[in-house]
C-alpha cells in the first residue's frame, strides 16, 4: 500500500501536469487570437499608372477603434527616407524623399475605417517600383507590398481615308514602353499583313502610333489592337456607309483588380500570461 508521502507526491505531480496543460491551452488560444487579429489588404497584381495622372496604391487594415494609435508608413524599394508617414493623427513628412514632395496624400477621413491607401499625384517614370505599406496599432504591426508600373497609353482615333479603296487609319499619340499593333478583320483573322504601321519616338521615350489598314469594306467590323507589356487597348470600328461606329476597350495586363487579404502573423508579448508563468 502506498504511503501518505507517496500519495501526496503523486497528487502534486498530477496537479502540476494539469496546471501546465491549462497554461499551454491559454497560451495557444491567446497567441492564435493575436495572430489573426491584424491583417492588411492590398490588390491582386500590379497597379498600372499613366504618365502625368494620379495613382492609388491600396492598403487596408483592421482598425483597433483607437484613432490616435494608428501609424502608417509608406516606403519605396531603393529610395531613401519615406514616401509618406502618418503618426499621431497627422502627417509626419520630415523624412520624406524629395522625389515625392507635395505629391502624396492619405485618405485621412477613412483611416479610422482601416484605409491606409496612398494617393500619388502626377505619376512620373521614376515612380515605377515596389512600395511597402506598414501599419501598426494596439493590435500589432504588419506590412504588405504594392508594385506600381508606370507607362503611357492613349485610346486610338479611327478615321476613313480614300474613296473606292478605303483605308482605315488608327492613330494614338502617347505610348510607352514601345507597343505593337495588330489588325483583325470581320472574322477576327489577323489582317496586319495588309497594313502599314509607323511607331515614332518623340525623343522622351513616348511613342506615337499610326497604322493604316488597306482595302476595308463597309458593313464590316475591324479591330485595331495596340499593346505593350502593361496595357492592351482595342479599338473596334463598325463601318456603316461613310461613317464609323467606334467601341474602345482597355485591358491592364497582370494588373490589380480583385483585392486579396494578406494576414500578417505577429509576435506579440502577452504580459498577463507571461507574469502568471513567472510567478
From TrEMBL:
Span of domain Ig-like: 36-159, 161-234
Transmembrane spans: 7-31
Subcellular localization: Membrane
The UniProt record lists the keyword NAD: no
Keyword Zinc in record: no
Pfam families given in the database record: C2-set_3, V-set
Keywords from the UniProt entry: Disulfide bond, Glycoprotein, Immunoglobulin domain, Membrane, Signal, Transmembrane, Transmembrane helix
GO biological process entries: regulation of cytokine production; regulation of leukocyte cell-cell adhesion; regulation of T cell activation; T cell receptor signaling pathway
Cross-referenced SMART domains: IG, IGc2, IGv
Molecular-function GO term, any one: signaling receptor binding
GO cellular component: external side of plasma membrane
Ranges in coiled-coil conformation: none
Major localisation: membrane
Protein name (record): V-set domain containing T cell activation inhibitor 1
Organism name: Latimeria chalumnae (Coelacanth)
Amino acid at each position: 500500500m502506498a504511503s501518505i508521502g507517496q500519495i501526496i507526491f503523486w497528487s502534486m505531480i498530477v496537479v502540476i501536469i494539469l496546471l501546465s496543460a491549462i497554461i499551454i491551452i491559454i497560451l495557444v488560444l491567446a497567441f492564435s487570437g493575436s495572430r489573426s487579429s491584424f491583417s492588411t489588404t492590398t490588390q491582386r497584381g500590379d497597379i498600372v499608372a499613366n504618365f502625368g495622372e494620379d495613382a492609388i496604391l491600396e492598403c487596408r487594415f483592421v482598425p483597433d477603434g483607437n484613432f490616435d494609435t494608428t501609424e502608417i508608413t509608406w516606403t519605396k524599394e531603393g529610395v531613401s527616407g519615406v514616401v509618406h508617414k502618418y503618426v499621431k493623427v497627422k502627417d509626419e513628412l520630415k523624412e520624406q524623399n524629395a522625389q515625392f514632395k507635395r505629391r502624396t496624400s492619405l485618405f485621412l477621413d477613412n483611416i479610422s475605417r482601416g484605409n491606409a491607401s496612398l494617393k500619388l499625384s502626377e505619376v512620373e517614370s521614376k515612380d515605377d517600383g515596389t512600395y511597402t505599406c506598414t501599419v501598426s496599432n494596439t493590435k500589432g504591426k504588419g506590412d504588405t507590398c504594392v508594385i506600381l508600373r508606370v507607362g503611357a497609353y492613349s485610346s486610338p482615333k479611327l478615321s476613313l481615308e480614300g474613296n473606292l479603296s478605303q483605308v482605315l487609319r488608327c492613330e494614338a499619340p502617347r505610348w510607352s514602353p514601345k507597343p505593337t499593333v495588330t489588325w483583325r478583320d470581320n472574322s477576327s483573322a489577323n489582317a496586319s499583313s495588309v497594313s502599314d504601321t509607323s511607331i515614332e519616338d518623340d525623343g522622351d521615350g513616348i511613342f506615337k502610333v499610326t497604322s493604316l489598314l488597306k482595302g476595308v469594306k463597309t458593313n464590316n467590323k475591324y479591330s485595331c489592337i495596340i499593346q505593350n507589356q502593361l496595357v492592351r487597348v482595342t479599338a473596334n470600328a463598325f463601318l456603316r456607309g461613310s461613317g464609323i461606329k467606334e467601341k474602345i476597350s482597355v485591358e491592364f495586363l497582370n494588373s490589380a483588380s480583385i483585392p486579396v487579404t494578406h494576414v500578417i502573423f505577429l509576435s506579440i508579448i502577452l504580459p498577463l500570461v507571461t507574469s502568471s508563468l513567472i510567478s
